[in-house]
Design brief:
Elements lengths: L6 E4 L6 E4 L11 H14 L1 E4 L6 H11 L20 E4 L30 E8 L7 E5 H6 L3 H8 L2 E4 L4 H8 L8 H7 L2 E4 L1 E3 L6 E3 L6 E4 L4 H15 L5 E4 L6 E5 L3 E4 L17 E7 L1
Parallel strand pairs: 2-3
Antiparallel strand pairs: 1-2, 3-13, 4-15, 5-13, 5-15, 6-12, 6-14, 7-8, 7-11, 9-10
The chain binds 2-oxoglutaric acid and fe (ii) ion.
């Protein structure tokens, strides 16, 4: 990009750019003009990939803080690595013989913290160990999803808000293998959540993006869960169409920054999950989150 000390190369037609020319381990030496340009590019491309950046936890957090204030970790605090309350560890590596609670995190499409009134602006995920085959993360572009709506549907959605909570009524039901009618309203209230417009304008790019996701979006305002389900399912399918995706094959030393305002992500169990203790299947990822 003009006037910056880094180069950017598209990862796919619409989604993602790989950034070269920056040393993330020396975050405080990165010029403000470069930081501003990274935010601008992120708003356009949705994800930024930095390769061959073997950071430690302190360097990862220093780079994150160089970009802006950290988000509160909330529920993820219990999955922080020792001594790093601001990091979220996603791993399939046992600890003291006990299987990791995050070994199959992200089994539904979502954007981080969409259940908060002010969701996370961006997340930075760093790869320490990746399975020899698989362990990918998939990303979907919500500008493309928005632009694929027919104009009539777009007009209708423009006035609608939807309720977002950690696990929607239908997600809870699916996880328990129960009909969704068995989930009581009180349960969702205890989880908390918030109303967001279904279509939102991105503050940096000015573009409109679809903002509903399969894990968290429960219902439209003034509609029941049952009435909302068919249209939500249509929107979830549109959001995650293969043509709207970029799929990342991780290498140790990769760091991906994604924008939660215009992308969603999902981690398929696309490796030999039955043998997750085999050394070639180890997966260790660390995430920081920007407010
Ligand atoms: O494990 C992954 O690839 C993604 C996990 C996830 O959803 C996250 O870190 O926000
Ligand atoms: Fe996530």
């Amino acid at each position: 990009m003009a006037g910056t000390s880094f180069s950017a190369r598209p990862l796919s037609w619409q989604t993602g750019s790989e950034i070269t020319g920056l040393d993330l381990s020396r975050a405080y030496e990165i010029a403000q003009a470069d930081i501003d340009a990274l935010w601008q590019l992120l708003g356009e491309r949705g994800i930024l990939l930095f390769r061959d950046q073997p950071l430690d936890n302190d360097q990862h957090l220093a780079f994150t803080r160089r970009l802006g204030p950290l988000a509160k970790t909330g529920l993820l605090g219990k999955h922080a690595p020792p001594g790093y309350p601001d990091l979220f560890q996603v791993t399939n590596i046992r600890s003291g013989g006990v299987r990791s609670e995050t070994e199959n995190a992200a089994q539904q499409w979502h954007s981080d913290q969409a259940f908060l009134a002010v969701p996370a602006r961006a997340s930075l995920l760093r790869c320490v160990h990746a399975p020899a085959l698989g362990g990918d993360t998939m990303f979907a572009n919500m500008y493309q999803a928005h632009d694929a709506l027919s104009p009539g549907l777009r007009d209708m959605l423009a006035g609608l808000r939807a309720f977002n909570t950690l696990f929607s009524t239908r997600t809870l039901a699916r996880r328990r293998r129960r009909p969704f009618g068995s989930i009581e309203e009180g349960e969702l209230e205890r989880q908390g959540g918030t109303w967001h417009p279904v279509l939102r304008r991105h503050e940096d790019s000015g573009r409109m993006a679809l903002f509903v996701n399969e894990q968290m979006t429960d219902r439209f305002e003034g509609w029941t869960v049952e009435d909302s389900a068919p249209l939500l399912d249509h929107l979830f399918a549109l959001a995650t169409r293969p043509a709207h995706q970029y799929r990342h094959r991780w290498r140790p030393g990769d760091l991906i920054m994604w924008d939660n305002r215009c992308t969603q992500h999902f981690a398929p169990l696309d490796y030999d999950f039955a043998n997750l203790d085999a050394p070639e299947n180890r997966r260790l990822m660390l995430r920081s989150t920007l407010a």
